[in-house]
């Protein structure tokens, strides 16, 4: 098996440190302790989890255990996924919550079909682009905080849509574990503690540029003026009451009941145009996933726009035209082709991806012929300075959580959920315990753009769950968190498995790249892109030699060591013959994969 070998440049010692602290800070990379040895597999990874009766992989060990408890109580994989998602909204509020949106792919063994659900919310029906621009007072984009980027929270409706089709246990039972943890408390996990501290500092800084109401949020998460630390017990009784009400009274408790009145009154007081009718009319949409064959019988399946899932399929159709396995996984050639394929796909994302109710998606973008044409634009020796979108025939740092659950009957759930930037837009309605998303920040203000803001419209969406078939059979749930990292992350994991024979855990632990930049779905259609080449960020596991080679090829490369921008991965594979489950989780998060 080819592996990505850890490598980094030595730091020159300029002077002898005068204190122990300075000595620790100035040690060379060669002096730092590295990975231990393993009897099998790569020494920078650990074993995947293997079980048979049920499995869950989430970004928090307690959420994983809740999912398993629901399965053992007779719940379906959908019941367990909803329970885990609710728990993560409490335990990982920096990544998700019921103030955000949800997308999922469900494999139903009874019908043998993949079902996709788009649980994303819309803009206010009574507010036009001109009215929004007047509120923006000359700004050329929506702010990241406050009332203007808020869209209807779609998660709760998506829960009930999924539960109505595939659930077995009462929703009150599904939400009960989180209600209990919210009232009694749970200890904060280390990575989440770091994100909470980052969030508090970011909101404090943004209040100066965009004044917005933050007192309610402070009371929930930062009551003593600081973020909770790792191991500190955290309680959210307001969220407990909200979830208990939803479990008891159903979907309408959130969208057409007392909770709605509280949310709408608060949003309107902040300057929002939302009405109770906007909430009551919200409805999730069942959609059909599309799949693209990569090689060796592996097909990647994604959800259609307004999500960016089809960008991963476009990358697959480009990269299938070159045999990446002829080079080592950490070589400049492999990273170059992945990066250029991403840039080509995202040139189309910026031009064509939007709410399909308002702008038709050109199906030609997913054809193998189109993939070959786009591949032909790649210079194997150098980074192309700028890629434009293709010309199909037209007919008309995000923060996220991903989880997956598979039950003993073979139902497989791939679910992703987010409040978008940070914890959301900073707004918390009194007594509710959750923050509203700021997903509307991703609207374009160019009226000619397919993704332009319009009343009652869903913005371009970054969160995407994935599914992989093998030889036409359901095989693997897969997801990777983090804004524009997600499609390129899906493809990198697929390449690791298919081209380099990595197991499920190694495929996620291996060093990643994240290309950021190029034209964005929020930019105007005409005029130059603010950053046409973009920046190629890589983890320290990419060697110095490869980094230098990529720079010589014209890429702007930066090495980032903290893992934050490279996503958060979970996956479960199911052997179609034996039913044995193999799970993996993300070393860059607090997560856990577990089964029974």
From TrEMBL:
EC code(s) of this entry: 2.3.2.2, 3.4.19.13
Matches recorded under InterPro entries: GGT-like_enzyme (IPR052896), GGT_lsub (IPR043138), GGT_peptidase (IPR000101), GGT_ssub_C (IPR043137), Ntn_hydrolases_N (IPR029055)
Catalysed conversion reaction: glutathione + H2O = L-cysteinylglycine + L-glutamate; an N-terminal (5-L-glutamyl)-[peptide] + an alpha-amino acid = 5-L-glutamyl amino acid + an N-terminal L-alpha-aminoacyl-[peptide]; an S-substituted glutathione + H2O = an S-substituted L-cysteinylglycine + L-glutamate
Active site: 400
Residues annotated as binding L-glutamate: 483
Pathway connected to this protein: Sulfur metabolism; glutathione metabolism
PTM remark: Cleaved by autocatalysis into a large and a small subunit.
Signal peptide per UniProt: 1-20
GO terms for MF: glutathione hydrolase activity; leukotriene C4 gamma-glutamyl transferase activity
UniProt keyword terms in alphabetical order: Acyltransferase, Glutathione biosynthesis, Hydrolase, Signal, Transferase, Zymogen
GO BP, sorted A to Z: glutathione biosynthetic process; glutathione catabolic process
Protein family (similarity comment): Belongs to the gamma-glutamyltransferase family.
Name of the protein in its database record: Glutathione hydrolase proenzyme
